[in-house]
Amino acid sequence: MLVLLAAIFVVHIATVIMLFVSTIANVWMVGSSTMGQVSSGLWLLCNKTCEQLVVKDDDEASMKAVQAFMILSIVFSVIALVMFIVQLFTLEKGKRFYITGAIMLVCWMCILIGVSIYTARLTSNTPGFTNPHHGYCFILAWICFCFSFIIGILYLVLRKK
Predict the structure, then answer these.
(1) Alpha carbons 49 and 39: distance in angstroms, whole number
(2) CA angle 103-90-106, nearest 5°?
(3) CB neighbours of 99 closer than 8 A, spacing ≥ 6?
(4) Band of residue 31 on the pLDDT scale cut at 50, 70, 90
(5) What is the helix (H) or strand (E) element at residue 32, kind and residue range?
(6) Could you tell me if 137 and 39 are in contact, meaning their C-beta atoms sit under 8 angstroms apart?
(7) In CA terms, which of 24, 46, 107, 119 is 20 to 30 Å from 2?
(8) Residue 114 in contact with residue 73, Cβ under 8 Å?
(9) For residue 95, which of 105, 103, 83, 87 has the smallest C-alpha distance?
(10) pTM assigned to the model
């Protein structure tokens, strides 16, 4: 049981770190342009230097929603990590990890909404990019989506142990 808890804790920390990286780094879409390799993220457009990401007026609300949901996912993931540690040492068996599992599933939902909006509304709108493809931050976000779901379910299952 101790090894399982340690493994879940390590995966949870890895998920938090990957969420930070995927939200902060600017490599959600990568492509080529006349200036060379270009990447865009949630905040900046980068080639040799980075500048503010310009989004069309139609997609501005979508980009703000993606930014908000990715930040919320980080917040809920950190809160779930703190709650895991608190519940591990304060609650008795059978009552542990309800709150942690629920918060982690809220984090999972925030990642799902944020990345889905980005996929539906913002991946096809990359003006000036030739041969655009998804960058590592986009892939990390989907990996965090999977990990947060698995961790949330495991927390709910572990409440009985």
Answers:
(1) 10
(2) 0
(3) 83, 87
(4) confident
(5) strand 29-33
(6) no
(7) 107
(8) yes
(9) 87
(10) 0.89
Give the integer Cα–Cα distance in Å for 94 and 41: 43
- Joined tokens for residue 73: 């996912």
Spatial distance between the Cα atoms of 74 and 86, rounded to a whole number of angstroms: 18
To which residue do tokens 């989004």 refer?
Answer: 55
Quick check: 15 pLDDT over 90? yes
Strand order in the sheet with 44-46: 50-52, 44-46, 36-40, 29-33, 130-134
User: What pLDDT, in 10s, does the model give residues 120-149?
Assistant: 988 776 666 778 889 999 999 999 999 999
CA distances for 3 relative to 8, 10, 69, 159, angstroms: 9, 11, 32, 16
Give the number of other CB atoms < 10 A from CB of residue 146: 12
Longest dimension (CA), the chain: 62
Tokens representing residue 15 in the block: 């998920």
**H-helix segments, the chain:** 2-24, 57-90, 98-117, 136-158
User: In sequence order, what are the residues at sequence separation of 6 or more whose Cβ sits closer than 8 angstroms to the Cβ of residue 110?
Assistant: 69, 70, 72, 73, 76
Which amino acid, residue 78?
Answer: V
How many other C-beta atoms lie within 10 A of the C-beta of residue 57?
6
